[in-house]
Design a protein that fits this description.
CATH superfamily: DHBP synthase
Structural class: alpha/beta
CATH architecture: Alpha-Beta Complex
Number of domains: 1
Helix content: 25-40%
CATH topology: DHBP synthase
Largest sheet: 6 strands, mixed
Order of helices and strands: HEEHEHHEEHEEHEEE
Strand order of the largest sheet: 6-3-5-4-9-10
Strand content: 15-25%
Distance between the termini: 24 Å
Length: 199
């Protein structure tokens, strides 16, 4: 985990973040290490960028993209309702947890599924948190694979077809073979119990 406290690490932070932020601001796609696996990212409020990701990944409109937000407060700007249990789960769940919310707002239309639902995760990893806070808007973080192909376990497994569709590849953790597993995905059921979609 990166902790940007010293002058040297702030220089590293700027070196990493400046080209990423520029790419995102210009509607480009990034390939970056998330708090789980490598992801394809863009500004989740940019219609054209989100459409490019869907086309690159060949995702049907029935599936929502996974988005990252830096905090509960930021998340509240983009979903219509957060159940009180979710706030507790997000604070104390040991594994990265992606929650499916029923209705999105203030996002690119294609960031959500065609039923209006959207999947959000609040990462607890230094680099992702710094990036999200610096950018100030949610970032798409869909797995770096195409269609139903397996999710890459590390950078070396990402296909050339994915890399060729990206505008900026983040130069961080590319040699790391110990990336985390994909996150748990869950939603709140009708009985207000947590329903796991992927464990």
């Amino acid at each position: 985990m990166l902790t940007f406290t010293s002058h040297r690490t702030r220089m590293v932070q700027n070196y990493l973040l400046e080209p990423i932020l520029e790419t995102l601001e210009n509607g480009g796609l990034i390939l970056f290490p998330t708090d789980t696996v490598w992801g394809i990212g863009c500004d989740a409020t940019n219609e054209m960028a989100v459409a490019r990701i869907r086309q690159l990944r060949q995702l049907p409109p029935s599936l929502s993209l996974t988005l990252l937000a830096p905090s509960i407060e930021a998340l509240k700007k983009h979903v219509t309702h957060i159940h009180p249990r979710v706030e507790t789960l997000l604070q104390f769940h040991s594994r990265p947890l992606t929650i499916l919310y029923e209705q999105a707002k203030n996002l690119a239309a294609q960031a959500a599924a065609n039923d209006g639902s959207v999947a959000f995760r609040i990462p607890k990893e230094g680099f992702c948190t710094e990036l999200l806070e610096a950018f100030g808007r949610p970032i798409v973080a869909t797995a770096a694979c195409i269609g139903d192909n397996p999710i890459p376990k590390h950078f070396g497994e990402i296909s050339s077809a994915v890399i060729e569709g990206i505008d900026h590849v983040v130069k961080y953790r590319q040699m790391d073979k110990d990336m985390a597993e994909p996150s748990v995905i869950a939603r709140i059921g009708e009985d207000e119990e947590l329903v796991f979609i992927r464990e």
